[in-house]
Here is the input.
Amino acid sequence: MSVDNIKSPTAMEELLAGVMVDKILYDKVQLTEISGKEEDILAEENASASDKITRVLANCILSLESSVPDTQPITDNNHLKAIVKNLAMGDRIFLFIRLRVLSLDQNFVMDLQCPSDEKVPFKATVDLNTLELKKLEDKNIRTMTVPLTDGGEVVLKLATGHDEGLLSTIKNSKTRLTSGMMIRIESLNGKPASIEDVQKLSLRNRNTIRTATQKWDVGVDTTITATDPLDGKDFDTELQLMQASFFFPSEILVD
Here is the structure.
């Protein structure tokens, strides 16, 4: 049988936030499994994690669909590639994890070090189907207004792949914390916010913004609880999405 005639597995996934295209909400994505082309993208040494996720998702999304009656799915590859960067950061991580489940399975073996003795490595298995998801209550509402302690207000928005790419270029910047906050701000006191505006906010107001963002933003809870095999105590760590073994369980690649 020709390779071209072999049908790859697909899956329909509901997005946590969805994406607006020409003022219409699209909130379902059909995925196809990762192939050798995407494997090569993931193995690139000089590309950022954000760039890898964008390119892999662009290749593996077959269609974007809407629940709005009489709305046709988007299947044009060039259009889909442009939309991938407009997806909320939480949706991008969600789809990346669902791709892993579709392409391999839900069990991911993480390489960890014992907190009680970092020289002792061990492995922990995570069921990716059990990760907690946080969705928008109303996907048609794309912003949230938050009152500040000084009488002003900030309008928050969902950070997207565009913002994620920007953050990856400034991760060592002196304004990294402020830049991370800015990508989620639509307006501050009725106007676009500058770096200087956000830096001038009091710590109390900045914490108000952080708390509101955490409560409202969509995403996947990637905090994993593991047990130290030496002392039996539980500890929290982060899901290693960009660890080579996430998509290469044979561990033939080096992180």
In short: The chain has two domains: 3-107, 137-217.
